[in-house]
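Posting for a labmate who doesn't have an account.
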Amino acid sequence: MTKPKITLDANAIINHYDRAHASPTSVPELEEIMRRWETDEIDVAITTRIEADLWQDKDKARRDAMLAKAEVLPIIGSVFRFGFSKLDDADGLMSDEHVDLAKQVEHILSPAGIDPQANTFPNKISDVDHLVGHKLAARDVFVTDDGKLNKKAADLAGIGIKVMRPSEALVEIDRILKGP
């Protein structure tokens, strides 16, 4: 039996762990995903970009709590990026293949490009790097409630990246566990 490999987006971490969040989504589904991870039925991980995402939270107490909660999850690397990566983390230098993949993901998510001067730049680059890290680690499903990412799921699937809402991911997990 193949153990499904699930990568969680930052919003999944917040929605699962922050019960005081104004509008948590997919809480029961995320609880089920985490239960299956805790019972070793599935492999759950986050990328190194989780920290960059969570550091954007202006609520220091929540940010610190979410960073602490995220520490219990295995971390997979992404591509090394100045201003985002740390020298001692799991990110790797980009090969030509990695550069091409990052450009493909960026084009799918932001066809007009990502403006480095825009306030949304850190979030958009983190999204690209989450997905690139997920793909490079050969993981099965990237789980997110980010509507913009989910709208691009079909295009991302075209380059081998499955993006799903938590409810869809649970169906995919069951399909993988049943096997061929």
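Reply:
Got it, the structure tokens are right above this. The mean pLDDT is 88.
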